[in-house]
Known about the structure:
This is Acetoin utilization protein AcuC. Helices cover 35% and strands 10% of the residues. By secondary structure, the chain is of the alpha/beta class.
Amino acid sequence: MSCTACAIWDEGYLAYDFGEHPMNPVRLELTIRLARELGVLDRLEVLPPRAADEQQLRTVHAADYLDAVRTASVDQDFTGYGLGTDDDPVFPGMFEASALIAGGSAIAAQQVWGGHVQHAVNIAGGLHHAMPGYASGFCVFNDVALAIRTMLAAGATRIAYVDIDVHHGDGVQAAFYEDPRVLTISLHQDPRTLFPGTGMPTETGRGPGEGTAINLALPPGTGDSGWLRAFRAVVPGAVRAFAPEVLVTQCGCDTHHEDPLANLELSVDGQRAAIGELHALAHEAAGGRWVAFGGGGYGVIRCVPRTWTHLLAEASGVRVPPETRIPDAWTDHLRGRGVSGELPRTMGEDRVPFAERWQPGGESWLDRAIGATRHASFPLLGLDPDDPRD
């Protein structure tokens, strides 16, 4: 598939650094290094980000919260507004680092909506938990909401957002819960078992936005085949029915079976397949317009670099086969930094994801979860919740 695509990248992203914390910026550096060694970056236009300014940030966040983040950037004892916690500890330059990521996501949106490229990727983005007035879940500024607002302000009237992070995309859902122009779909581990505790099928939007929030809560232990069955049973039909002008995706890879913070069981191969389905859906349902972000993912060596390199490659239109060997230069770099233990040898994990079509009436936790989502949301989109063709 021939695609025009760009990546938004600058080493300044690495300043978004909470210190001893799961959100380690090395995951970004290792992804870009791997993508460069494999020649993936050569097939993308790499554009530098610009920090989001006050006017842009005010479209997403309250003025007093922005002031709080500025204060936290210079006062390491600051607490409040969700800052100074274990999840969101303060660090020098927090405001500037967060604004750079947010601005990068806005540029990605402008590149796609403006017709400069079909696809744009910001792997540092996807900070989907940040709320208008407080930080949450490792997220200071909600760059995803800013990207969507950027396109709405430029004239977009129908935007579909699909979030495949293991955690519910609560901040993005909250931003557009009453907005009929934005469809938000989140596939995540059942919130009764994981942060942030929201994202049940009954959350479907409010007022004029009723029917434009869709949540699929997956049981712990769901692997490649179950995840793909759930995705195919909900996402393509809902997105097609909404008929968006652009598809926005948050491609968090903390669904991986080795991720230390959650309990789904996807492989890199399953995540690669999911990214491929999102790419195809953008072409099928959104005229090829696709804005993609990173997100969660805390297997900083064995998962994130491979999965997000696949994301960059998918956007370029030239996939990296899973049997591709990891370049020696990448491995040598890690060994030179003192990394011991087994390192990944290929771009896959020798799994071939396969998913049977969902059928109504299944009694497993997963099939009941799929049915609950379809019954809550599909009628609001004019779809038959019991017809597996929808």
